[in-house]
Fold this sequence. Notes:
Blueprint: H1 3-34, H2 41-50, H3 65-74, H4 82-95, H5 102-111, H6 120-125, H7 127-148, H8 153-180, H9 191-203, H10 207-214, H11 220-229, H12 237-255, H13 260-274, H14 277-283, H15 285-306
Amino acid sequence: MLSRSAENLFWLSRYMERAEATARLIEMGRRMAMLPSLGTQDDWLSVVRASGSAAFLPEGETANEASVIDLLLLREDNPSSIRSSLSRARANAKSVRTAMTRQMWETLNDGWRMLDGLDGAGAVRDLSAHLDWVATLTATFRGAAEASMLRDDRYDFLRLGGYVERADMTLRLLDVKYYVLLPETEVIGGGRDHHQWTSVLGALSGMRAFHHLYKGDFSPWKITDFVILNSAFPRSLAFSYQQIVEHLNNLAARYDAESPCARTAWDALMRISRIGAGEIFSTGLHEFVINAISVNNRLSEEIAETYHFQGH
C-alpha cells in the first residue's frame, strides 16, 4: 500500500474521531455550565484548554457559551473545531476514494456541508441538534467501515488513526476536571465535584456502563479507574491501547517489520495494565494525563516515521 494512502486513511479516521470528541467536549461544557449555581466561565474555559484550542481564543475574549461554540464548532482556522475536522476528513477521503467503500464515501460526502452557512447565533440556538448530527455522522461512518471494509492494511490504518485520536481525546475530556475543580481540594466530594465527575461519564456515553459496574459509587477514584483502566469500556484509555497494539501488530505482520511505534504502544499498554487509580491520584491526575498525551503524540510521530507519512 502506498504510504500516502496509508497516511490519508490514518488521518481521515483521526479527524472523524476528533469531530465527535469535540462535540462531546462542547456537550460536557454545556452540562456543567447549566447546573444551577455551579456553572461559571471557568467551565467553558476548561473546555477550550482541554481541547488544545486556547491559542485560538482571541486575547481578552471571555470564554462563554457563544464564544466557545464558535471556536470549537465553526472556526475553520482551528484544527480542533468540528467544521475544520470534517473538512479535513473529507479532503483525506477524496485522496483515497478508491480505498473506501461506497457506503463510507456517501456517509461522509452527503453530510459534510451541514455546517455551511451556520452562524454563531444559529449554532447556540440549535446546539443540541447540531451535536447530535455530528454524533450520528461519525457513528454511521464507523458503522459503514466496520460493515463493508476488507480486513486488510487499509482497515488497520483507518482504525489505528481512530484509536490514537480517541485515546488523546478521552484524556483531554478527563483533564477538564483538572482545570475546573481539582485545585479546589477542599470541595472534593461535594455537590459540585459530584456533578463535574458525572459530566465526564456523560460526555463519554459511559453513565449506564459505569453504573452497571460500580452501582452508585461515583467517587473520583472509581470514575478514573473506569475511564483510564477498564479495558471493557470502548472509550477507555486501556481499550484504545489494546486496539492500537492489535492494529500495529497486524501491520507489522503484513509488512514483516518490527517498529519503534509497536514497542511504544506495548509499553504504554503495560503501564496502564499495572497502574491503579489510587496510584494515579497519588502522583497527580493532571500529571498522569499530560504524560499520557505526550506518549500518545510520540506514538503518532513514530507511526508516521515507520510508514513514511509525508507530514500532516
